[in-house]
Amino acid sequence: MVSMMVAAFRRRHFINRSPVRSARWELPSPVHMSYDHMKIESKWQDVWEREKVFEVTEDDSKPKFYNVAMYPYPSGELHVGHVRNYTYIDLITRYKMMQGFNVLSPMGWDSFGLNAENHAIETGINPRVSVDEQIAKMKEQFRLLGVGFDWSRELASHDPAYYRWDQWLFLELYERGLAYKAEAAVNWCPKDQTVLANEQVVGDDVCERCGTPVEKKMLSQWQFKITDYADRLLDSIDNLHHWPDRVRTMQRNWIGRSKGATFTMQVDGKGSFDVFTTRPDTSFGMTFCVLAPEHALVESLIKGSQNETEARDYVAAARRQSEIERLAEGDKTGVFTGVYAINPVNDARVPIYIADYVLMGYGTGAIMAVPGQDQRDWEFATKYGIDIIRTVQPEEGFDGEAYLGDGATINSDFLNGLHREDAIAKIIGWFGENEIGEATTQYRLRDWLISRQRYWGCPIPMVNCESCGLVPVPKEDLPVLLPPIDDYLPKGKSPLAAVDEFVNTTCPRCEGPAQRETDTMDTFMDSSWYFLRYADPHNDEIIFDPEKAKYWMPVDQYIGGVEHAILHLLYARFITMFLHDIGLSPVEEPFERMFTQGMLIRDGAKMSKTKGNVVSPDHYYENYGADATRLFELFVGPPKDDAVWNDSGVPGTKRFLDRFWKQAAGDHRFSNRQTDGRDREMLGITHRTVRKVTEDIDRFHFNTTVPALMTLSNELQTYLGDEPVEDVYKEVIEKMVLMLSPMAPHLAHELWEAKGHATMLAHEPWPSWDEDLAREETVTMIVQVNGKVRDRIEVSADIDEAGAEEMALASEKIQGWLDGGEVMRVITRPPNLVNIVVG
RNA sequence: GCCGGAGUGGCGGAAUUGGAAGACGCGCCAGAUUCAAAAUCUGGUGAGGCAUUGCCUCGUGUGGGUUCGAGUCCCACCUCCGGCACCA
Asked: What Å value separates CA A780 and C1' B30?
């Protein structure tokens, strides 16, 4: 049956060729209409595993390439969105191996976190058990995809052998004054008596479980002083030359350094407060000032004022809102306190307002409002009927809005006539002389709050002693193990607080009774240094051997979702800088090249388990194979952009692979004619394709490599129908197999072996191209008249300007279009284009 | 509200530098093969118009602008996506 079909196929396509000789490769099975992907793929997956092809050690004879995909949360199920990420990372691993690099591509698990804890609350199953099961499932899916990871370095953040080093890091930060405890607000559900993550606050600020309105509650929590590193984290962005501009910009804006001045405002008989401004040169334009609702002075200001009730209601309402909601409100709101402050520059009495557009977390939590030069202040002043004083003169006059541009200072006494920079310098000098203020720098960045009132995380290694206070757990006592528990629901505190044998301990300092910290760490801590641990994942003496890290670091290519462009990357940079400062990390910046990939969309939304629109790759592995699945993942769209999943895409790439299989492994009849232009053209296209595929991989345009190979295959099909020459055919096939090997590695390996190679394809060099062969001898030159295409002429590729113009003007079609008009100008861009401008 | 992106046929997308808009694939249509279907192969496929060959006009979210020439650059806006902790 099968051989009849093959015979029919051959008859249809090659019946007219005069057979001279044939190329027959040794194949394990006859050439079917489609290849047996199940058999081939499991065969090569076994070989790669058995031969430990992707396990590497430090090797100074080769340049290293360290390739990391952001480690996944073990949801138990890969979907085609994940597969996209790992197809990219594997393409790079295999491509770089072929280029002669010693490539490390490890994998691990971001296994602490809210999802596993929620699962435990629902099912009562210890997350330790469910997470391990899910990891096993996902590993199998990785194997079926054929991804080359060095599994000998596998790690998981819930493993005590891993998280003990989280705790060690915490203690190092603490010893250097970079970890401290301070009051911070949490979302609090009064009904469930539970702290809620932002994600658990839904809709109109209610608890996702019970729908109760969420409140804010202050708790004493651990924070890392990332702000001490703000300048370094900001300035060092300039050196991240191989990061996407959008990520660098977002990081810069996130840190948000602004220079300005802080000065003190006096309140009538009720103390004083500091304000920060980036525009001290506009101080004479202050017509009111604003305190954040949470400002410490608010209570004493409003007490007994004529606006007390209204102000109190406003503060209470603001407290109920999340910060994003406060920002999202289009209309500025606020309330007058009934109290006035004194503008120190001119002794003017200005009303003090409370408004939620001023945040306690930034600057001093209080501002001088200058509506003439600030748009938000302008809107507020307009709404509440407050005076506006212009202090900067625009050259083009005022337009009924705040003026943010430059100009001479006006209405400002001793600053009049000065421009911004000089005025700022002068007023800051004046603040100094009068001892009311000074130049200061503020950052948008805040310290990193790491306390979580949750079970499924790394315990914070501190104890509270009744006589010694906060005492760190000695490093030799690490890890502080996360105890098994029965009830995962937090009750006012972390679930760990209910475990007496965990909580009650002795003070490491005085050996008196003490209680452990019951909060766990933010999982961003786990993910801030795992790429360093991969260099030395099994070390139980030290977080990692600096010598091994020196070999592998920095990460040469880091790939992950664009949603991590700010927080994760910033924290990872901070911790790496810290590890560098204490002499462990060889580098300050962990990621040499960063690539942020887009997400996969289906049914108009990003693929996620909660949205119920995930597509499992298993069905595609089974019916079309991992290679076809991988090829479509590459083909689906630009890696940096979101892409839409199409269910019939994988069958399409399988068709291409089947066709290539037939071209590569099938029987063809060859001619022994002299080589001619047909062969020259076939080789030209092949070498141009090698060049294009290489360049496109290097610039991360994976989506265009697949069509390039498809086009080459189409050209080969035509070539095979017109007296093909065997040597030419062999070169085309060999180059194609090599190019396909990082993309569709199973089929490529099978064909490589079938062709009689004793070597493994994974160890073969990436194909090169010959520029002479790749050069095109003639090109189609576009001739335009007034910018519209009017003719196309085949010209020699090395035509010069005069020649191009001559050819263009000689065209009959062009002459027709020039009829009657005067040639004003001729633009020539040989050999591609001539544009004739006629009047 | 702020920061960062993105909008191109029925669909995903292509167009490295400002120079042929729609490569390649999916889908659809027609044909070949088949008792039939699937699979496979061949051809066609932005819209509108004229047409015997072929040719013309329009067309890259909207409105302006720069340029011999704009999907690409500039200004304003609309819609969608990612992030978020009013940046004073």
From this structure: 32
Sheet with A194-196, side-by-side order of all strands: A194-196, A179-189, A215-224, A448-449
Give the three-class secondary structure for A774.
helix
Closest alpha carbon to C1' of B5, residue: A246
| Mean pLDDT within A745-770 | 94
Higher pLDDT, A304 or A736: A736
pTM assigned to the model: 0.90
A387: amino acid identity, one letter: D
What is the residue type of A820? Answer: G
What is the DSSP secondary-structure string of A312-342? HHHHHHHHHS-HHHHHH-SS--EEEEEEEEE
Residue nearest B15, CA–C1′ metric: A704
Residue nearest to nucleotide B20 (CA to C1'): A782
Question: In the predicted model, is pLDDT for residue A14 greater than 50?
Answer: no
* Residue A607 CA distance to nucleotide B74 C1' (Å): 37
Alpha-helical segments (H) within A597-648: 618-623, 626-635
How far, in Å, is the CA of A325 from the C1' of nucleotide B9? 41
**What percentage of chain A carries pLDDT values higher than 90?**
58
Q: Which pLDDT belongs to residue A605?
A: 67
Q: Which residue has the tokens 């984290």?
A: A233
Q: Tokens in use for A295?
A: 């400002």
What is the enclosing helix (H) or strand (E) of A288? strand A288-291
Place of tokens 């539970």: A194
Mean model confidence pLDDT for chain A: 88
Distance CA A525, CA A564 (A): 14
Tell me: pLDDT of A65 over 80.
Answer: yes
Whole-angstrom distance, CA of residue A98 vs CA of residue A472: 49
pLDDT tens profile A573-590: 999 999 999 999 999 999
Tens digits of per-residue pLDDT, A622-635?
999 999 999 999 99
Q: Which residues pair with A558 in a beta bridge?
A: A68, A594
Give me the residue label for tokens 């480690």. A71
Return phi, psi of residue A769, to 5°. Answer: -130, 155
DSSP string computed for A63-104 = -EEEEEEPPPP--S---HHHHHHHHHHHHHHHHHHHTT-EEE
pLDDT higher than threshold 90 for residue A283: yes
For chain A, give the number of residues: 839
Between CA A239 and CA A232 the distance in angstroms is 11
Please tell me the predicted confidence (pLDDT) of residue A470.
Answer: 93
Please list, in sequence order, all residues whose beta carbon lies within 8 angstroms of the beta carbon of residue A694, skipping any fewer than 6 positions away: A766, A769
According to the model, what pLDDT value does residue A39 have? 93
Distance CA A161, CA A398 (A): 66
3-state secondary structure of A602: strand
- Above 90 in pLDDT, residue A162? yes
d(CA A183, CA A216): 12
The contacts of residue A548 (CB under 8 Å, 6+ apart) are A58, A535, A536
Q: How far is it, in rounded angstroms, from Cα A185 to Cα A453?
A: 12
Among left, alpha and beta (phi > 0; psi -120 to 50; other), residue A269 is: left
Given a contact cutoff of 8 angstroms between Cβ atoms, the answer to whether A407 and A419 are in contact is: yes
Record the tokens describing residue A298, joined without a space: 């608010």
Per residue in A207-243, pLDDT tens?
A: 877 788 888 888 888 999 999 999 999 999 999 999 9
Query: Once rounded to an integer, what is the mean pLDDT over residues A594-614?
Result: 76
Residue A367 sits at φ, ψ, to 5 deg, of -130, 155
Alpha carbons A154 and A574: distance in angstroms, whole number: 24
**Minimum mean pLDDT range among A256-265, A300-309, A343-352:** A300-309
Nucleotides of B under 7 A from a protein CB: 1-6, 11-16, 19-21, 23-27, 33, 39-42, 56-57, 68-70, 81-88
Whether A712 contacts A640, CB under 8 Å: no
State both tokens at A689: 């394709």
